[in-house]
Amino acid sequence: MKQENVLGTQKVSKLFVQFSLPAIMAMVINGMQTIIDGIFLGNFVGHNAMASVNLVQPFTQLIIGSSMIISIGCLSFIGRSLGEGKNEEAQNIFKTSLICMVIVSVIITFIGVIFNKPLAVILGANDVLLESVATYIKTLALFALPMSLMFLFGFVDRVIEKPELYLKGSILSVITNIVLNYILIKELKLGIMGAAIATGMSYSIAFFIVIVPLLNKNTVINIFEGRFDKSTIWPVAYNGSSEGVTAIAIATTAYVFNMAFMKIAGEVGIAAFTSISYISQFGTLIMFGISDGIGPIVSYNYGYKKYDRVEDVLKISYRVTLSVGAVLFLILFLFGKDLVSMFAGNNKEVLDMAVSGSKIYAFSFFLNGFNIVYSGYFTAIGLAKESIIISSCRGIIFIILGIVILPSVFDIQGIWMTIPFAELMTLIIGIGLMKKNQLPSLKEAAA
């Protein structure tokens, strides 16, 4: 007999707050790790160090992206299995995902430690930035395994009704990062290596918080029970593949923007883009937090065939993302200069370029929340193809199309216009996919 879960019984609006609020806070806090690095490096080392961290973004996304593929795919699959009452299958999915995560993380560590300089060249580092980029890659690679397991365990905590643990781990993580950045960068003058150590340690420390409920054999999902089931690898990877595409999209965006700015404005252009990307990342992470928070609610109730509850949580998500987007637009549009100065310091050239771009970039916040929720929703119900389409459109296809066309017409302003352009085109496609894949009506579900 299927054990009841609050995901299928509690009021949807209460669940939204209970699951999305910790997810938003955790997502923002975790995303602040590189932002904190940027603040310390920009103010105590210089804009070249800050630019170096941005060039490393694709490698960072390799770690985070591979973790998210397994974690989100695992969460979606486990949620639907628990909703269908298949507890043993859910445990096997987790055990298989855990083993796969360890293997992938060890491979990434090997690549980062051995091939850090070739990777730095591939990522666009010039002679000025090469050594610092390679150092960051090599150092961060050492933390790939604990970082990855932190994500996996933190996400699984949500589906076993412990969403607050990921938030607690994230709070400890950001405090650790601030303290270590201060000690390693400001006091010990370790520069880019200090930033990488601080980031790796801060992510890893949260591991000890999120693993706690999974050490209890009486928990429906734990690290002791279950067996490796190779038949679950493809469903997990397929369900989470859109998260992999999102990571690739983030890496692609960073790469093509870095190349475009390097060509037009050199290191100063990359530093300006880095400043805006840090600020916009904060807003985007709120949207991802909403999407991640509703994931367990959607997957469980979809598996339970309670489609009315799925509809309700989507409606709440739309209203919240639109409201958040409007607030973020106003903040970036009106206070962009104050925010950019946190990273650019007194560098007037970087400051002027970034402030000008922020007023264009700000329009993307009206649109990206819907696209992120659409993608997360499709992942939660097992329609990975649709989620991949949305992630690919907003982060790869229309980014590349925009960066090729718009700067040739609008010069440097065209680079800033690329993100709003990509979000608008993706929104049109996302609405079409949502209409095409409407949920069964209550009458059909009952039948």
Describe it for me?
This protein has 447 residues and is mainly α. The chain has one domain (7-446). The protein contains 17 helices and no strands. The chain has helices spanning 12-44, 47-55, 57-83, 87-114, 116-122, 130-141, 144-159, 163-187, 191-205, 207-210, 233-303, 307-344, 348-361, 368-380, 384-410, 412-436, 442-446. The radius of gyration is 21 Å and the shape is globular. The two termini are 21 Å apart.
Q: What is the topological layout?
A:
Layout: H1 12-44, H2 47-55, H3 57-83, H4 87-114, H5 116-122, H6 130-141, H7 144-159, H8 163-187, H9 191-205, H10 207-210, H11 233-303, H12 307-344, H13 348-361, H14 368-380, H15 384-410, H16 412-436, H17 442-446
Helix pairs in contact: 1-2, 1-8, 1-9, 1-11, 1-12, 2-6, 2-11, 3-4, 3-7, 3-11, 4-6, 4-7, 5-6, 6-9, 7-8, 7-9, 8-9, 11-12, 11-13, 11-14, 11-15, 12-13, 12-14, 13-16, 14-15, 14-16, 15-16
Descriptive labels:
globular; disordered C terminus; MATE_MepA_subfamily; 447 residues; 17 helices; mainly alpha; 83% helix; transmembrane
